[in-house]
Specification:
The chain has helices at about 5-70, 90-95, 110-120, 140-145, 160-170, 185-195, 280-295, 310-315, 320-330, 340-350, 370-385, 400-415; strands at about 105-110, 175-180, 210, 215-220, 230-240, 240-250, 260-265, 270-275, 420-425, 430-435, 440-450, 455-460, 465. By secondary structure, the protein is an alpha+beta fold. The chain has a five-stranded antiparallel beta sheet with strand order 1-5-6-7-8, sandwiched between helices. Strands 9-10-11-12-13 form a five-stranded antiparallel beta sheet, with helices on one face. Helix 9 (about 320-330) runs antiparallel to helix 11.
Amino acid sequence: MKKRPVRQFVIILMIILFSFTLCGCAVTDLAGEVIETMRSDRDKEDTKEKRTSRRKKNDGDDDSDEAANDSGNEDDNDADDSADPVDEEADEANGSADDEVSYHADGELTSQELSELDTLFNSESYYGFLLTEYQDPRDIDWSQVFYLGAGLSYSGSYEEAEMEYLKQVGATELLGDLTVVSEKDVESYVRATTGYDYKEMRHPLSRWTYLPGCRAYAFDHGDTNYISEVSTFRGSVRDNVYTVHYGHIGGFGEGTTPFTVTFTRNGQTLRFLSNRSSEYDEASAAYEEDLADTYVQPDYIIYDSDSRKLTDYDLSGLNARELRIARNEIYARHGRMFKDKELQDYFDGKSWYYGYISPSQWSEKNLNQYEAYNVNLISKYEKNAPAPDASASSGYTNNELCQMALNYYSRHYGYRPGIAEVDSVNGNMVTIHLYDDMGTHTATSAWYEIDRTTGKGTDEIMGGKIDLNR
């Protein structure tokens, strides 16, 4: 009888110990799950913080660059002419700031270039271009592009715009965030990123409210139109037409069909051509190849002075006026404006020009290594260059007419002849010969007789009146 309570006590003690063991395992498993969850949450927060920091950094570039600008660059077309040429080898060794934009011959894009494009694509300025499909830039949905303002700051009174908006829609308060973009900025930005006028767009800001008092557009919306972060994984360039394949990572866009975007590039300025899903077939590949073949470089004195070092051969045939324009078109590519009226009028007439940086805000830091070198080289040639022909002072130069003739032929016939040269000059009338050198003979594409002062004339082969500006 005395042993039985002891046996019962031992059994009870074993049950209690076994229960503690089970509880300990459960607690250990739960702690493991909590720690793993915390780690997962921390990783998500780190990723989110990095993305936010990346977007903020990109969105703040304009402000930081503006604050760093030299106030001494007031001289519109002679800025830093005395600067020493950039040492390319030193840049490659030390990692120049110019490396932020890489230029190279046709071929595959480097991992650095893809990383740079990741930053651009995830910025407010360009993210909206990747949210809809289009094979023609006139089909871009501008409500998506300007959803968060496209990186543009509204220069007018935001309070006045908000009051006018509420009055127009008959509301007493905003439901979300109000984006306000000036009419002028909309028109300029559309032109800069597509090459077309805003009035040609098929999907304008129709869902937005136009504020006539502020001459601006306004839209009351939710917090963001970001789906997920864009990540590029492959790309190539041919004749300055970029073809880039990308997908979405994180967010509810992840796992969707990859996309392919095509565009041309001038530094940090992208001009979009198409954006569509990457379900390739032979027709898609043919379309891209034709697009690269038929795309026409805008009319420059030297169209590629932003992507290679110029040589004596490039500059030896240009007169003082042409050299001056060639040097300043390097600045104009970046959107710089000019105090000199002749220069400003000249670049305002170019389809590729989008002027928005005043001379006082300009900084030479905006130039890449090729541009900085070429500015200095052209400046040296300008000092000893011959004056322009008297006949060209009241109209287009011979070089300009040849470039215009090539562009005109390419626009109308889908092919760009290899050579354009002035055959004869009779007063203001200039005869231009477009042809290809076939080795044993020349293959003529066109003979144009053009009025130097207007750019208009006749097609001597096909007949009829032509205007090289159209």
